[in-house]
Design a protein that fits this description.
It contains two helices and eight strands, in the order E-H-E-E-E-E-H-E-E-E. The chain is globular. The strands form two sheets. The protein has a four-stranded mixed sheet, with helices on one face. A four-stranded mixed sheet has the order 5-8-7-6, covered by helices on one side. By secondary structure, the protein is of the alpha/beta class. It starts with 6 loop residues before the first strand and ends with a strand. The relative contact order is 0.23.
Amino acid sequence: MKHLISWASIPSSDFDRAVNFYSAVTGKSLEVKGEGDQRMATSLAESDFKENIVGFGVTADPTITPGPSGPRLYLAIEDMEGFLGRVDEAGGKIITPKSAMGEMGFWGLIEDSEGNQIGLHSTK
């Protein structure tokens, strides 16, 4: 097993706003699955348990509260400058701009449209 984590849910207080935010900053369409309070938007990355790929999606689950103090997940970003350049316009906020981590690459931190703090990691 390559990764201990197999899936991550990003909570939202306004599901449509969160879907629009992640669609805007990633430049990818998200597919909404489920109904009512159990909707999830995916396509950012789909889990593939055979290939051990970690996936995540935006969720409308009312049992998960968005905010800055929960567990922090890091998105693998190829073009961090491009991603960060779309955050403010999409309704988020840059907390830590692209910062060097030596041979581990670069990291950054944003606050999404729902108040969640999401880490970013890039090798470039």
